[in-house]
Specification:
By secondary structure, this protein is α/β, with parallel strands linked by helices. The chain contains 14 helices and twelve strands.
Length: 396
């Protein structure tokens, strides 16, 4: 794999040189005032990106999976019931993590390619008059299928049922790339990671916590030590950590979050929408479709592309890697071999994306796919040049 080429996996994402250099720093005393000059601005910036005024930001040296674990072990007790939908690999993994912690998961089985089933959630919450459901899980952006879910719709369902359950949201592949409104959507815990929209290496689990979730932490009894919100926030009050922080990554986060704010969040989201739309124009020109069940569900950070019957999508990923030195995402779980994924998030431009589209075409042509070289590139170019194209075809 050439380090000269951008990657097109849905994380870890491409790193700007300035961010990579910010992470590469000399040893710093994390008990000193100098650490506070890194950590304080990083936390303040993340609050703006999550769009929360009242929530706290807790940053663990971990991955997004660590953020999932922190979300449940700080707010729930053994045997508690949580409501979750299984509609992709990452929603499935969060369910599995809950089950391994002794929680009773009320699973709404949902076809892969669909988003979180808001109506089914509403029915389950309305039927739960005894309020046995303590938390509702939502995967905002299902990375395996390229599907977004309606977090605001789930909050509306909770409110309509007058249900007190916590709303826990996995925003690992959406936050900092797609609009996320923690306060407006009534999200109690938002989980994300450093390696996607924040354009950093993996290693930081970034968790937004509402006042309601913090209050729940006082009575929750699932075991926790490393992931205890209270230990973290108590240490933050004196400018430190209860253990050794990932100083270099936090310095990178301070810079990357400021870069996002300097670009302007609306501009960041518009850039991701534009790049994603160009990719979908290319997919339509190949005669293929995204795996997402409808255009309303299309992710702005990753497109999972169905391949024709008789082909194995994993071969495209392998061919691109070994022959052209470019990384795409393989299909996971139920869609393994059925889709390949183009990640289009983080540090990415129209021009970089065209290189990925062209490489996918070469790999498919090498494997005998019924495509015309240049067709997807041309369709994306037309959109990137003029913001136009066969919109109906791209949305098909």
């Amino acid at each position: 794999m050439s380090d000269q080429n951008p990657v097109f996996i849905p994380g870890p994402t491409n790193m700007p040189d300035s961010i990579r250099k910010a992470c590469d720093m000399a040893t710093l005393d994390h008990r000193s005032a100098a650490f506070g000059e890194i950590f304080g601005p990083a936390v303040a910036n993340v609050k703006q990106i999550l769009k929360t005024r009242t929530g706290e930001i807790v940053i663990f040296p971990a991955s997004g999976t660590g953020g999932w674990e922190a979300a449940i072990c700080n707010t729930l007790s053994p045997g508690d019931t949580v409501l979750a939908a299984r509609h992709g690999m990452f929603s499935q993994r969060w369910i599995g993590l809950c089950q391994r912690h002794g929680l009773n998961v009320q699973v709404v089985e949902t076809p892969w390619g669909e988003g979180c089933p808001v109506a089914a959630y509403g029915e389950a919450l309305a039927a739960d008059t005894g309020h046995s459901i303590k938390a509702v899980l939502v995967t905002h952006n299902e990375t395996a299928t390229g599907v977004r879910s309606d977090v605001a719709g789930v909050r509306a369902a909770l409110d309509a049922a007058d249900h007190p359950a916590l709303l826990l949201v996995d925003g690992v592949s959406s936050v900092a790339s797609m609009d996320f409104r923690m306060d407006d959507w009534g999200v109690d815990i938002a989980v994300t990671g450093s390696q996607k929209g924040f354009m950093l290496p993996a290693g930081l689990a970034i968790v937004g916590v509402s006042p309601k979730a913090l209050a729940t932490a006082e009575s929750a009894t699932l075991p926790r030590a490393f992931f205890d919100f209270r230990d973290m926030l108590n240490s933050y009050a004196t400018g430190g950590y209860p253990y050794t922080p990932a100083v270099g990554l936090l310095n990178g986060l301070r810079l990357s979050s400021q870069m996002l704010l300097d670009e302007g969040l609306d501009n960041v989201f518009a850039r991701h929408t534009r790049i994603a739309t160009g990719v979908r124009h290319a997919v339509a020109a190949w005669g293929m479709t995204p795996y997402a069940a409808s255009p309303a569900l299309y992710s702005e950070t990753v497109t999972a592309i169905r391949v024709p019957e008789g082909f194995n999508a994993t071969d495209i990923v392998n061919r691109a890697a070994t022959t052209y030195g470019v990384a795409f995402g393989v299909g996971l779980g139920e869609v393994a071999g059925k889709v390949f994924r183009i990640g289009h998030l983080g540090s990415l431009t129209d021009v970089m994306t065209l290189a990925g589209i062209a490489t996918a075409e070469m790999a498919m042509a090498d494997l005998g796919y019924p495509i015309t070289l240049g067709s997807g590139v041309s369709a994306a170019q037309e959109f990137y040049r003029h913001g136009t194209g066969n919109a109906a075809q791209a949305a098909a």
